């Protein structure tokens, strides 16, 4: 499919694994110049080799830990230096933070920092550049709004939904859109740890997922790439599940 990208650039966080990796590869295959960020440089090199082998646009690698204070602003500057400008921001770095009890202050701060605060800071560090160019696309990978148990990441993801909706109303006039995608159970490094065998996946899927299986990262990346493309010109402020029908409510 032709998504109508032309000389676009993107910063993808969490590009070493799972969903971010599939999005980075998918964008590069569409001719987008991608800066891929994560902590594990060696794994990013592997992703770059896969992109090259598939004939995608040569990516840039940025080694970055998003946890320390100031990390978002540093990453934004590195991406701007490497790419010249950033048209598309994919906020995929993050992860589940299940709690067995109320959780400590440190656990809550760690979860909120990675899954909300850094996303907010990184976005605001790049928005002025998008505003100058009158075009931008921001996609946040979030999570469920139907908590079955206590998980500090759920609260952080909900904060992203509400912040993102508010921001979408401010930025629409500048040609910038912002969306959230809620993965259900998408095969990735963190999901593999929780469901190590196909049988474990199927046991969950039989009960919870109408399509009866876990999703592949590429199945979610297809939506992220569309939302990042010029084709998604009359949508903003959405929260869209990609979950095989797991989400239970009509609206
Ligand atoms: N997969 C699912 O079914 C699912 C469900 C609900 C929500 N989500 C959300 O979707 C997003 C992607 O999930 P995934 O399943 O693809 O995750 P994953 O396979 O565990 O990958 C997480 C990515 O985030 C990066 N990352 C983690 N901590 C980081 C840090 N401190 N600084 C910089 N990068 C960091 C990791 O890279 P390094 O380790 O190399 O730094 C990795 O590339 C996450 O926000 C997750 O919460 C996924």
Q: Can you put this structure into words, describing what you see?
A:
This protein is of the alpha/beta class and 251 residues long. It has a single domain (9-96, 136-242), classed as 3-Layer(aba) Sandwich (Rossmann fold), CATH 3.40.50. The chain has helices spanning 18-29, 41-53, 71-83, 105-133, 152-171, 189-194, 198-208, 217-228; strands at 9-13, 33-38, 60-63, 88-91, 136-141, 176-183, 239-242. The protein has a seven-stranded parallel β-sheet with strand order 3-2-1-4-5-6-7, sandwiched between helices. Helix 3 (71-83) runs parallel beside helix 4 (105-133). The longest helix is centred in the middle third of the chain and has 29 residues, at 105-133. It is globular and about 45 Å long. Residues 14-20, 38-40, 43, 64-67, 92-96, 114, 141, 143, 153, 183, 185-186, 188-191 line the site of NADP nicotinamide-adenine-dinucleotide phosphate. NADP nicotinamide-adenine-dinucleotide phosphate (NAP) binds next to helix 1 and helix 6.
Tell me about the biggest sheet? 7 strands, parallel
Number of E strands: 7
CATH superfamily: NAD(P)-binding Rossmann-like Domain
**Stretches where pLDDT falls below 50 for ≥5 residues?**
none
Write the layout of secondary structure elements.
Elements: E1 9-13, H1 18-29, E2 33-38, H2 41-53, E3 60-63, H3 71-83, E4 88-91, H4 105-133, E5 136-141, H5 152-171, E6 176-183, H6 189-194, H7 198-208, H8 217-228, E7 239-242
Parallel strand pairs: 1-2, 1-4, 2-3, 4-5, 5-6, 6-7
